[in-house]
Amino acid sequence: xxxxxxxxxxxxxxxxxxxxxxxxxxxxxxxxxxxxxxxxxxxxxxxxxxxxxxxxxxxxxxxxxxxxxxxxxxxxxxxxxxxxxxxxxxxxxxxxxxxxxxxxxxxxxxxxxxxxxxxxxxxxxxxxxxxxxxxxxxxxxxxxxxxxxxxxxxxxxxxxxxxxxxxxxxxxxxxxxxxxxxxxxxxxxxxxxxxxxxxxxxxxxxxxxxxxxxxxxxxxxxxxx
Amino acid sequence: xxxxxxxxxxxxxxxxxxxxxxxxxxxxxxxxxxxxxxxxxxxxxxxxxxxxxxxxxxxxxxxxxxxxxxxxxxxxxxxxxxxxxxxxxxxxxxxxxxxxxxxxxxxxxxxxxxxxxxxxxxxxxxxxxxxxxxxxxxxxxxxxxxxxxxxxxxxxxxxxxxxxxxxxxxxxxxxxxxxxxxxxxxxxxxxxxxxxxxxxxxxxxxxxxxxxxxxxxxxxxxxxxxxxxxxxxxxxxxxxxxxxxx
Lengths: 225, 246
What we know:
The structure holds 2 protein chains of 2 kinds.
Chain A: H1 2-6, H2 8-38, H3 40-52, H4 54-86, H5 101-104, H6 106-134, H7 150-157, H8 161-188, H9 196-224
Helix pairs in contact in A: 2-3, 2-4, 2-8, 2-9, 4-6, 6-8, 8-9
Chain B: E1 3-9, E2 18-24, H1 33-46, E3 68-70, E4 73-74, E5 96-101, E6 109-111, E7 114-115, H2 118-127, H3 148-158, H4 165-169, H5 176-187, H6 190-193, H7 196-209, H8 220-224, H9 232-245
Parallel strand pairs in B: 1-5
Antiparallel strand pairs in B: 1-2, 3-4, 3-5, 6-7
C-alpha cells in the first residue's frame, strides 16, 4: 500500500481524499456560520461547543490542520513535478481550446486560498489559540459582552470593509477552485461514467452555493452592524 | 493561399532549437497539412536549404506517427483527427501558422518536429499484452461470452493509436489517457483479467519512471485525442490500481 501512495495515481488519490475531507469541513463550517445570520444565540452555543469539546479540539482539529497542510504541500509538490515533466514550453499554446481556465489554474486559485487561510488564521484561529491555550481562558466569555463572545467577535471582524473585500475575493477563488476540484476529486477516485453528469451538477451547485453563502454572511454582518 | 510558417528548427537532440519563419505560396485549400509541408520542403531543397524533418507514415489517420503542435493545439485546430487528416481549408489566406514538436520531457526532440516516443513503447512492453499460447491450440475467442457493453468499451479503448497528442496537450505532460486506454482495453475483457493486477502496476510504474507528469483532470487530452478516447479510461485505470494495491 505504501508503494501505491508513491505512484502518480496514488498521489492523485491522496489529493482527492484530503479534498473530500476539506469539502466536508467547509460544509459544516458554512452551516455553523449560517446560524450567525438566523440565530446569534444558537451560533454562540454551537461555537462554544466546537471550541471547547475535547474531541473537536484535540482529535478533529489536528486532523483538519494536517488535511489543510497536506493538500497545500502535495499540491505544490505535484505542480513542481509536472513543470519538470513539461520540458521546453510551447511558443504558442491554446489551452482555452480544450480545457477550462479553472482546471488549468488550480495552483493559482490554490495560492489565493492559501493567502486567505493565512489571513483567516490571523483573524480568528490564532486569537482563539492564544485565549484558550496560552491564557487558559476556556470560558467563552469576554468583558463587556453578555453571554458568549463568539458572535460579537464575528460582527466586529466584519465591520472592516477592507476585510470584507478580501474575504469576498478569496471566496471567488474558492468557487473557481471547487468548480474544477469537486468533480476532479471524484474522477481521481475512479468514479464511473454513469455518475458523471450527476456529479457535475452536484459539483456546480456546491461550488457556487457554499462560497456565495459565505459572501452573503460576511456582507450581512457588514451592512447590519 | 499564401502563408507564413513559424517552425521549430533543431539540428539534433543535443542542439538548441529556435523558431524560424518561412513563406509558402499558392497553397490549395484541398491539400492536407502534410502536403503543405511537402511543398515547403521541396522549396527548401530547391534553394539548397535543409528540409524540415517531421514524422509521418500512413497519412490516413491510423499509424499515429504525425505529431505536430499547430497553432497551440496537438494535430492543429480540428477535432478527432491526426495532422495528416488536417486540411488547409481550416486556415485563411495570409495566416501565420506556428508549428512546434510535441513537447514533454519524456518525448525528447530528435530533429526539428520529430520527437522520440519510445517511452510509450516501453510502457506497452511493461504490460500492454496478454500471455496466450499461440502454438495452434488457441481457443476460439468467440467461445468466451463477453457483454456487448464491455466489448464496445474495450474496442473504444483499443482505438488508441499511441500518437502522444494526450501528452503533448496536457499541461502536466501526463500520459494517463494513453496508459488508461491500454489498461482498460484488457481489463474489460476476460482474457485480460487474468494478468490485470500485474499489468496496471507495471504499466503505471513504467509511466512514472519515464518522467510523465501527474494528471489533474483538465480533460484537454480527451478533447485533442484523434480517436476520442474518453477520460473514463483514466478513472478505470485509477480503480484498477486501487484494486491491485489493496
